[in-house]
Amino acid sequence: MIDSDSVVVLAAGLSRRFGDKKLLQDVCGMPLFSLTLRNVRTGPWQTFIVVSEASGLADRDTGVPKVINRDPSQGMSSSIRCAVEALSSSARIVFVNGDQPLVRAEHIERLIARCTPGRICATRVNGETVTPVCFPKEFYGELRALRGDRGAKQILDSHPEDVVFIDADADSLTDVDTPEDLAMLKRKLGCL
Length: 192
Prior knowledge:
GO terms for molecular function: nucleotidyltransferase activity. This is MobA-like NTP transferase domain-containing protein. Pfam families: NTP_transf_3 (PF12804). This protein is α/β, with parallel strands linked by helices. The protein has one domain (about 5-190): Spore Coat Polysaccharide Biosynthesis Protein SpsA, Chain A, CATH 3.90.550. Helix content is about 25%, strand content about 25%. It contains 6 helices and 9 strands. The protein has helices at about 30-40, 75-85, 105-115, 140-145, 155-160, 180-190, and strands spanning about 5-10, 25, 30, 45-50, 65-70, 90-95, 120-125, 130-135, 165. The strands form 2 sheets. A 7-stranded mixed beta sheet has the order 5-4-1-6-8-7-9, sandwiched between helices. Strands 2-3 form a two-stranded antiparallel sheet. Strand 7 and strand 8 (about 130-135) form a beta hairpin. The radius of gyration is 15 Å and the shape is globular.
């Protein structure tokens, strides 16, 4: 039996731009990644996992099944490959970055609804393609073949005719890449 939907939070990044383990940074009394998990886990999907590196998040009890990326230095593609291997029976996989604490389950539901066989559904903010992105099973082979830190954008670029977009508000997809981004998020949430 094939699962309908799976959601993956990618949380194995090395936080090079941030300079520290950004997903463990405190935001309003909880780690940054906990905000992302809280918002994303409320949806109706059958499977929800976190791909994390062997230390840090992997040591935390999040109540969410984890897949360990043993080689996060290989970039985001290694986390994507880990997820696809773990969820190969799923009909669709949505990838969310762990540093997107304001993403909503409703947005992911819209992506899944538009992600049909042979059709990728991606998020677009101000004309730029960003995560979350939903891939149907037909693209798992290409996801497994990814290398480097560019993630799955190269698949979207290779198949523009197979991509549909959902436009989103930049505020709802804020990501935290730098300490300045973290401070801005805290101000937005009223905890700075």
